[in-house]
Amino acid sequence: MPEIPASLQQIIKICEKISIGEAEPGALNGLFVKARQVIAFERTGLERFTWDAIWTDKFQSLVNKLQAELEAHEKALQDLENSLSDAEPFAIEKAGRDLKYSAEAVATLWDELNAEVGEQMVMSPYPVYDHLLKVGQNILQGHVDPSVLTAFFTPAADFTIRLRAAVKRFVLFYGESSLSECAQKVITNVEAGMGALDKFLQSGQTKALDDALHLLVTTTVTMYTVMSDMGQWAAAEKKYARHPLVEELYRAREAKLQGEDLSYLWQAIKHALKLELTQVQTLLNHPLASLCDVHSQALKAGMARVMYIVQEGEKKSLDELDLPEFDIMLLNLDRLIHNDLTHINIECRLVSGAPNFEELLVTVGLAMDGKIEPEAFKIILQDTLERIEETQNNLDGALEQLSAEDLELLAHCLDCQALGCRELASWCETGDKQLLKNGWRRISASLPSTKRICAQMKKSLGLNDNSSKKLTCMRCGQQNPASARYCSKCSAVLMQLVQAPPMEYTDLETGLSDSNFEHPLPGNILKLEQLVRSVESGQAYTQEAAEVLDKLLSSAYAYRKLYINRVRPALEREQIDPSIAERFEIGMSSYIDGLEICRNFVEDPQIDYLYNGLDQASAAALELNELQTELADYF
Known about the structure:
By secondary structure, the chain is an all-alpha fold. Strands 1-2 form a two-stranded antiparallel sheet. The protein folds into four domains: 6-119, Four Helix Bundle (Hemerythrin (Met), subunit A); 122-237; 352-481, no CATH class; 518-632, Up-down Bundle (Four Helix Bundle (Hemerythrin (Met), subunit A)), CATH 1.20.120. The protein has helices spanning 6-19, 32-49, 57-86, 89-119, 127-140, 149-173, 179-203, 206-236, 244-254, 259-285, 296-313, 323-351, 355-368, 374-393, 404-430, 433-460, 504-510, 522-536, 542-573, 578-603, 607-632; strands spanning 470-472, 479-481. It starts with 5 loop residues before the first helix and ends with a helix. It is built from 21 helices and two strands.
């Protein structure tokens, strides 16, 4: 059921009570002002929502439907208000019912619209440029007024200044790197693109806007690649500290960085720490925090201490800072964040593809925090238990699909799950939270075997398991597309397993954690290699492989589409060596073919598919990486 705003829910519930004589019409007095504000907010929100979205036919259709439903929504609210003045119970009941239907329709369309935007390709790996480019494209196509661009230009211009400062520091600290010259050329071209946008804002010349979009869509992709390479170089060349931020401070001290350059370094550090602070807040507010024993107090204390040192450090000279202590403090904080996120993600992965247990996991987490009443907990628990018992009673139907050994194992797993549910139910009577932990541990221990056996049954029956193509929001339980970054229902961040703390020139400086852009270069090959190793060691199987490969393929197809729409026309317009375009298309096709070979493993789990696909994709990715460097010479 789509989520309806609280103010409208209140009106709908009162109308239902009026219809059965449990409330008087006067109970609605004073509630309409807030409801009108909600509708006005949704109208404004829809307009802003369209600024930086790609106007596909489906998106246009959804926008038109939502605009029409908002009008119907407003009319239903007005009809309800008019019926109150007439004091006719039948008219009030009908108007309330119409309001409920229109509110549900609006909420459903918002869900569909969010899902559609979540699936759209990105035009730049940096969110700030991605929003800017989409707004610019919509201005060219006549969907958005040019005045809107200013609101997106200012943060992008500030971000460009930060990128320039990061490049300048890299050149100063690692001047011996061949990346220094390349990075300076690329950031200069990014600045040229921003300059063309500024010219459009000043003059309104459409050609300036078109030139800016063509330049930025190419150079920001190249900038991302170069910044990533810079991060890898900086990580490999660390010699003073283990944490990348502290290494920067050591090198700044060595280079006697001062004035504006030092100020930009502190800005970059504070920006990086804001991302870590967001992770800490996500952990503290996560519904599974108590169940997974998140180190709440240690995270709060560690983050507060780090922020204090940064604030005090800005007032001192670099020579006065106790950098060894700061290094240890940041490493400990990163380790805490990484371990707690990993623990939560392990629980989430256990229930991935098992909707009943996904909902139960969130419910147990809420119970641990005292955020759900025992009666509501019992309802969800009973539904899960009934499904388990139904499966237990129908095990005979699995005789033809399973071996005797697997059938026995499945029966044992179901017994454990039923016992775990009964243990969870005991919490409703005693309030002992240890029962929640014990019950869930019993259930979660049985899930890997259960999922493996069920997948085997589906395969033998010729059914495709599409569950791995969905991401489940652990706040509200909503199923989201695999490529989505945010939940389409509650806008929560869809958490992914954190592999390692980020590095200065990638996540920390560029805000990559806000982006779902993945470039088909060695970073993705590393993910592919990790998948192969996990399969070899028995830590992953077809479902995990599908999750990784579908995401890589989605990114690859999105990037190829970006190339066709923007990069190739730019190459042709600038009359650049046609062999570069040809090599790119061949390399991109070879890379995607390699991923498709790996994808065969999901349907036919022979590890040779992974080995052969990895070899082909790796070779293609290296070729694409070289082409990015060549393109940097032109853009």
